[in-house]
Request: fold
Amino acid sequence: MTGATGGDPMTATTGRPTATTGRPTATGQTEPATPAAANRRGVPARRRRGVQWRRKDYGLVILAAPAIVFFLVFAYGPMAGLVVAFQDFNIKDGVFGSPWAGLSNFEFFFTSGQMARILRNTLVLNALFLAATLGAGVLLALMLNEIRGTLLRRGLQSAVFIPYFVSPIVISIFLQAFLAGVGGRGGIVNDALNVFSLPSVSWYTEPGPWPWILTIVKVWQLGGYFSVIFLAAITSIPEEVYEAGVIDGASRAQMAWRITLPLLKPTGAVLLLLGVGRIFYGDFGLIYAIVGDNGILFATTDVIDTYVFRALRTYGDFGTTAAIGLFQSVVGFVLVMIALGVQRRYSKESSIL
Amino acid sequence: MAAINDAGLSRRSFLLGTAGLGAVGALAACGDGSGGGGSTSGGSLSLLLPGDVPPEWDRVLGAVNEKLEADLGFTIAPEFIAWSNYAAQSLLKFTAGEDFDTALSARWLNIAQLVESGAIVGLDGAFASGDYPELQVTVAQDAFDANRWPDGAVYGIPAVNSAARLHHYTLRADLVDSYAGGSIDSFDQLEQFWYDVHQREGIPGFIRGGASPWLVLGGPTGVFFPEGWEDPSVIPVFFSSDSLFFVPAADAASTGSSDLVPFWEHQPYVDALRRVRQYYEDGIINADMLNIDTATAKGQFTSGGAASVWAITDGTSTSSQLPELSAAVPGASLMNVMPFADGLAARPNQTFQADNMVVLNASGSDNTRALQLLDWVSKQENHDLLQYGIEGTDWELVDGDRYRQLGTYANFPGYALSWRVDRERKAADMSDSEDELFTWSQDYNNFERDPFSSFIPDLGPVETEHSQITAAIAEFGLPLWAGAKDVDPGLDELKRAMETAGYEKVLDELRTQADAYLADQG
Reply:
């Protein structure tokens, strides 16, 4: 029923209603999508929407209630705790009883001399992670889609998905075996370098390569996961489109490039937006499991999350850590808004909001 | 649209079902969680303990609770928190106002913040009441006095099983026999042993997971600190042990002036840094100290992958490592070596400040019962039940007062509840050398009281600067302690970070407080 009043083919293939589509009513008719349309029928838009909401959609409220309660309790309610960022927090007096400290908690981070480095690392690492994992996901999906044997494709699909379930701790152990070996003086990579008469590298004392090492780990971990999402999107592309391509004499590669890839744009846009929303969150689990307290690597790996955790663990100052967390959230929110704006400006058909 | 799917589930049924499940979930979430096991009619105390749950814990806890309820009318419900999370988790629980009753805390954890916030209970009044005789008998007055806060109050019960906490070595005795003639009596001899083992056995001389300043900067002894072998009298002064160390003047007590200087102005410490760097480059120590945890390092040692490890005078070196080592390397044995040129005739300085203390939560359900529990576990039979398990099943008495483990129950974290110097039993398989050192370390008379023995500085005036310093030490100090960085450029980086963090202000404050302390001592 979606798109009954029209809409572009792109949204028709994904089943997503656009701003121009109408919402089907219980009688099967399509109601006007805009207030102007409602007014044309002589009913004020606000009143009409209110009447219909109460009469027809009470069930939706009940359906939505668990989710609303969930977000109120676990997302919006805890925001009250952000007040700690402006307090000289005291355990005995608690969150709402501690004295005010103004902006002094923010001074710690802004005067630490490490802010620029931590912000740079956070943005650079996450941009690398996002670009590399999405790119790898698309590439893997295209490759898997080209495999004709169903059994082989499903087998490979499962195989590339498995790393998603591997714990960061286990990944850190793998990595130590690869880069350092027992006692920190070997590792598979160094053994391979030695085969070619190249000198061993003390990976855990060289901060330079670590953004790339972490990116490779991230691709290994998430490439398969994203490929499954893209593969699901590919399966929803109508066969007719490919048949038209075949009739036009397109090769498999041309169809992948000219048909599949463009039709993956909406899915990619959603994943990109979700990724940008978290770009200020540095994948604490993976980075901390791998880098830990190795200060030598902080120059290229220390992100806001690891810094906050270390700060809380070592000197237990909730006010300071809450202030850094608030800063992180505000900047993350701004980035999401910017990403959304850019998306609406340049690719409105794939915008989700 | 009577049904929402082909199975015939009606829309109304679906909505009612969803609402019902939500209501059940909400009601479950609103419970106080007290319906779990362990709670009895007499009530149950909640304890925070670090580490993993010991094997066979439920069975032993059942026996403990049965006796505890018969004796005092209540039970205990300990909650184990992994070591790696303990500091943050326990602090969060205090912050959240949870009503647990006891926890482990210390200066290297968050006790300063807890005291400042009034989150833990002062204990002097309770002791003055005389209601807890076993507790007061088994914890020495020296231990209490050394752990008084600047306001004069005691906020934690020292959970120690020895008077002194001295850093030393556990070595593979079979390798010492092969390469050092059966004994190690000097740092030079130890160093030669490490190099010989590395050259001929192909394993590091020393292995460690996690870098610590105590390895390099003696306090008064350190693993890579030869100065401490000759003169075990220097104990650095600090706000917290994961922060910047300052060295007091040798004559501080007589002049009344601490003359504190940062550690890099104390030449023996800088020499020790150069030494550990050399060991790193020569393969004498493991190169992944910064990346592996203590359990991994221990596993490598007990599988025969190194010649020595760090030890402290808690009497657990042999029992915690020999069984695994013997299984992996038939014929292997252990010995402990204390780094003193004069052997046990040396009289090293000690502050007697406890590494671990049991604190009472001001929001706890019942502080009186918590003290009754701490008194109860100070009795030998109760201490044994909790620490070693059920006699005859988990352990047996040998040689009069030693214990031999029979089952798998082990590793109860007594340092967070029940360690008492007079109540600890030695393991039957404890090496002779560890036995001698452990016995010696339990006598307060074997040590010199440090001039700053009960000095616990107030962090309040320099909290922000100190936080910056701690962060900088984590980044620039740990690689130096591990030998992973060249000393001169590494120290330059560290000093620059310290200046940015404002260490001069911290030093001035510490000097002022230390001098005031010395003046108070007369």
Observations:
- The first strand of chain B starts at residue 44 and ends at 50.
- Residues 122 and 153 of chain B are 6 Å apart (CA to CA).
- Residues 44-158+355-416 of chain B form a domain with the D-Maltodextrin-Binding Protein; domain 2 fold (CATH 3.40.190.10).
- DSSP finds 21 helices and 14 strands in chain B.
